[in-house]
């Protein structure tokens, strides 16, 4: 019988967020939304694409975890469930 060696990459930290290049997934989503907004409105897109994620990263470091979801509730975009 031949031995089959399975080699898979196991993440070093299981609680670490998924990152693409330098940004986490939520920061990348903000960058994509800013890019799409800039392309649809024909506004100077370089400042929007750079400053949008930069502002979000600064806010994310300043406020507690989950602040974006709570901000949506405070602005009446979504509601808490089961209350």
Structure description:
By secondary structure, this protein is mostly helical. It contains 3 helices and 2 strands; from the N terminus they run ββααα. The protein has a domain at 40-75. It has a two-stranded antiparallel ribbon. Strand 1 and strand 2 form a beta hairpin. Helix 1 (25-41) runs antiparallel to helix 2. The longest helix has 18 residues, at 45-62. It is extended, with a radius of gyration of 19 Å.
Q: Quote the distance from N terminus to C terminus.
A: 60 Å
Helix content: 40-55%
Largest sheet: 2 strands, antiparallel
Strand order of the largest sheet: 1-2
Shape: extended
Number of beta-strand segments: 2
Could you tell me the mean pLDDT?
A: 76
* Rounded Rg: 19 Å
Q: Which structural class best describes the helix and strand composition?
A: mainly alpha
Key traits:
single chain; 83 residues; extended; two-stranded antiparallel sheet; mainly alpha
Short description:
The protein has helices at about 25-40, 45-60, 65-75; strands at about 20, 25. The protein is mostly helical and about 80 residues long.
């Amino acid at each position: 019988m031949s031995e089959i060696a399975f080699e898979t990459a196991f993440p070093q930290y299981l609680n670490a967020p998924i990152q693409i290049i330098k940004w986490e997934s939520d920061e990348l989503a903000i960058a994509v939304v800013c890019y799409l907004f800039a392309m649809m409105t024909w506004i100077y897109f370089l400042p929007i694409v750079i400053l949008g994620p930069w502002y979000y990263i600064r806010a994310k470091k300043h406020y507690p975890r989950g602040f974006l979801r709570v901000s949506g509730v405070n602005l009446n975009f979504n509601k808490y469930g089961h209350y």
